[in-house]
Amino acid sequence: MLKRVVTWFFLIPLALLFAFFALANRQEILLGVDPLSPDSPFVGPFPVPLFIVIYGALMLGIVLGGVGAYVGQHKKRAEVRALRKQNTELKQQLDARAPTTDKDDGLALLDDRV
User: Fold this and answer.
1) Quick one: DSSP state of residue 102?
2) DSSP 17
3) What are phi and psi of 83, to 5 degrees?
4) In 3-state terms, what secondary structure has residue 15?
5) Given this model, what pLDDT does residue 99 score?
6) 20 to 30 A Cα–Cα from 39, which one of 4, 7, 58, 80?
7) Chain centroid offset of residue 96 CA
């Protein structure tokens, strides 16, 4: 139910906002890739709608931010992996040391058999 509420009250107006933004910025601009020689570019300027340039920059920023966050968390992930391995080893050692007593023998705790 909460997913539908989020969809109807947040995502749909956001999608409409993006669509209206694209309609308002559909004029073409010249996108050149060679900043050193703008007079005779290596790859010549392409006519591209402005909203594609803006959305492309936005998507590139999201991807680069995600990659940066992933790389920045490398030490934490390695630490968690090492702690999980240590936890598994300690559990195995604890299981190996566990006394073997019969659960039916109620007096086994009083004997020296343990």
Assistant:
1) -
2) H
3) -70, -35
4) helix
5) 67
6) 58
7) 39
pLDDT in tens, 60-93: 999 999 999 999 999 999 999 999 999 999 999 9
CA distances for 62 relative to 45, 51, 59, 94, angstroms: 25, 16, 5, 46
Residue 11 CA to residue 72 CA, distance in Å, equals 29
Q: Say yes or no to pLDDT of 113 above 60.
A: no
Distance CA 90, CA 67 (A): 34
| Residues linked to residue 47 through DSSP beta bridges, in sequence order | 30
**β-strands 46-49, 28-31: how paired?**
antiparallel
Q: How far apart are CA 56 and CA 62, in angstroms?
A: 10
Q: Which stretches of the chain are assigned E, i.e. beta strand?
A: 28-31, 46-49
Give dist(CA 53, CA 30) in Å, integer. Answer: 10
Q: Are 61 and 76 in contact (CB under 8 A)?
A: no
∠ CA 92-96-98, rounded to 5°: 115
Around Cβ 90, how many Cβ atoms within 10 Å?
10
Instruction: Say how many residues make up the chain.
Output: 114
